[in-house]
Design brief:
This protein is an alpha+beta fold. 46% of the residues lie in helices and 11% in strands. The strands form 2 sheets. It has a 5-stranded mixed sheet, sandwiched between helices. It has a 3-stranded antiparallel sheet with strand order 6-7-8. α6 runs antiparallel to α7, α7 crosses α9 and α11 packs antiparallel against α13. It is globular, with a radius of gyration of 24 Å.
Length: 396
């Protein structure tokens, strides 16, 4: 199903803007950043760019083939009156995109080169998140060096970008490393030359412990949600240690109730894997299916197609608020909690590594292929939750 972008009018700091509304999507965000002067409004929760003929033309060019642009409302309405603008517009500080907007725009031939690079990565089956991250980093890097011919960019320019842009703005270590990787790949494939970025000293990788929810906290979040679909989505993420993207693209046929397994297709690293299906979550899924009757995707949006990642994150925040949990947590926290609870229950680390689909290290490569017999003996921590009695008992 083609992604959709809705164009509208917006006033930002007294200037007339084109607003772009679309569901959270890493590829569309990366493309939006390629538009000169594009920014994100935290107040209005949308992307925007100055309203002029050139920018409107760029919007259609950048998103061609990637999204359907609904411009009916944009062309049928004129910008709101000044009174409406003042009522709607509240001063709000933009996130990091403000520094990006201060950079010079890209030349047209550089934009074309980035589009070709995106196509090359897609042909090579790079993950969508990787493509978006690389395009984002490259756009910042090339705009920082706008005006300098690509053939003249060298290792010293990467060092200067690190010092004067990334470090000066205190961007993360992971972002710094991603930009270096993106620059290295781009120049080797599109410019047919190496920048020798391997000689650049890489920052030490951050070592951060993940945030964890206790089993009691997970149960309280699920108990606080009355909507069956919402309970199923969060419950399935926790019960199988899923990534958000893995849940959203899961199809009905991926649930194998005969073998009590879940097939996760084309996960990170383009690898399939199986994880055990919790008997307790199966009863939730059957109850959900009877009411919602999804057609292909296990969890569909209100108008069909994929469920919104933004809406899914909003469900977790709602559950935490209703449960009175104030600690920091995201959807990925449920995955971290699953792995931690398995480990605390005595599950071997080798099995956990396979269940999560993590890339194996040299010392654990031999243990990555776990037999389905062993998978069937692993009990999901979801079965140990003390959930309300009003919900169906697990099937026998």
């Amino acid at each position: 199903m083609m992604k959709k972008i809705v164009l509208g009018h917006l006033t930002h700091k007294g200037r007339t803007m084109i607003r772009l509304d679309f569901d959270y999507d890493v590829e569309l965000i990366a493309l939006a950043r390629m538009i000169d002067g594009a920014g994100w409004s935290r107040t209005h929760r949308c992307w925007y760019v100055e309203n002029n003929r050139e920018n409107l033309k760029n919007i259609f060019a950048v998103f061609r083939g990637k999204a359907w642009i609904n411009s009916e409302g944009f062309f049928s309405r004129t910008p709101a009156s000044q009174k409406e603008k003042e009522d709607r517009h509240k001063t709000g500080r933009k996130p990091g995109n403000e520094s990006l907007r201060s950079l010079p725009p890209l030349e047209n031939d550089t934009k074309e080169s980035l589009i070709k690079f995106r196509g090359w990565m897609q042909q090579r089956r790079y993950a969508e998140n990787t493509i978006a991250t690389y395009l984002d980093g490259l756009t910042s890097f090339l705009r920082f060096h706008a005006g300098k011919p690509l053939r003249q960019i060298n290792k010293d320019d990467v060092i200067r970008f690190n010092k004067e842009y990334i470090l000066a703005r205190e961007y993360s270590i992971s972002y710094q490393s991603q930009v270096i990787n993106a620059v290295k790949l781009y120049f080797s494939r599109m410019e047919d030359r190496a920048l020798n970025v391997d000689e650049i000293e890489r920052p030490r990788k951050e070592w951060k412990l993940p945030d964890i929810l206790s089993t009691e906290e997970v149960a309280s979040i699920l108990n606080a949600l009355e909507n069956k679909k919402h309970r199923c989505m969060l419950g399935l993420i926790y019960s199988a240690g899923l990534r958000r993207s893995e849940l959203l693209k899961m199809e009905i046929g991926d649930i194998d109730s005969d073998r009590m397994l879940i097939k996760i297709r084309a996960a990170k690293g383009a690898k399939d894997r199986y994880v055990p299906l919790s008997r307790h979550i199966l009863s939730y899924l059957r109850d959900y299916y009877k009411q919602y009757k999804p057609e292909k995707r296990l969890f569909e949006g209100q108008k069909g197609g994929s469920y919104s990642a933004t809406s899914l994150a909003r469900i977790l925040r709602k559950g935490m608020r209703l449960a009175g949990i104030t600690k920091r947590a995201t959807l990925h926290t449920l995955r971290h909690s699953y792995a931690t609870h398995l480990l605390e229950a005595g599950t071997d680390l080798r099995y956990i590594q396979e269940l999560l689909g993590h890339k194996s290290s040299k010392t654990t490569e031999i243990y990555t292929h776990v037999s389905k017999k062993e998978l069937g003996r692993i009990k999901s921590p979801f079965d140990n939750l003390k959930l309300d009695k009003k919900h169906d008992e697990p099937p026998t």
